[in-house]
Amino acid sequence: MYTDFPILKTKFRGYIESNPRLNDGLEGLDIYLLRSAIGYKFKKNMEGYVGYAYVNDYLPTRVQENRIYQQFGYGQVLFKRIQVLHRIRTEQRFFNDREGCANRLRYMLRLATPIPNTRWYVVTSDELFINTNSLNDGPNAGIDQNRLYGALGRQVNRKLRLEVGYQLQYTNRSEPIVDKANHQLMTQAFISL
Fold this sequence. Notes:
Blueprint: E1 2-6, E2 12-22, E3 29-43, E4 46-57, E5 63-78, E6 82-95, E7 102-114, E8 120-131, E9 142-157, E10 160-171, E11 180-192
Parallel strand pairs: 1-11
Antiparallel strand pairs: 1-2, 2-3, 3-4, 4-5, 5-6, 6-7, 7-8, 8-9, 9-10, 10-11
């Protein structure tokens, strides 16, 4: 669930995200992510955020991560129908069992188009994660993962939209562990107050 809301009557926005992720067998929680931020709307189609995320990774061993992040988003409309979003995010990642800060850069391209005469739309996105440095016993510099997403969405009303879709998450892991492709069912709710 993703919620963004105005702060007073200014161009500042608040943001809160709760993101539980179940494991492969749907037997329990794999990862829980709680993200918050304060943003500023520069223009109708351009905004920036600074925030904090807490990540609790349960499997195979419990790892807690604290992230500070900054992001910039720019939207545009192509051919009067296709909504395009570019999002760049930088993250500074701190792990409970490792020393130092792992830095990561993320770029997402998202395309959405309405289904004529309905409140439904189709969406696809691709997000690339790149570690910009290495930590001892932690993330290595280079490509971390890539997430390819496709979904069907519905604009329920002006403040709520829902999406159900599929995400292919490719994870580039360090030797000797082989890379992994996760096939994920995604259900998402976006609330804008």
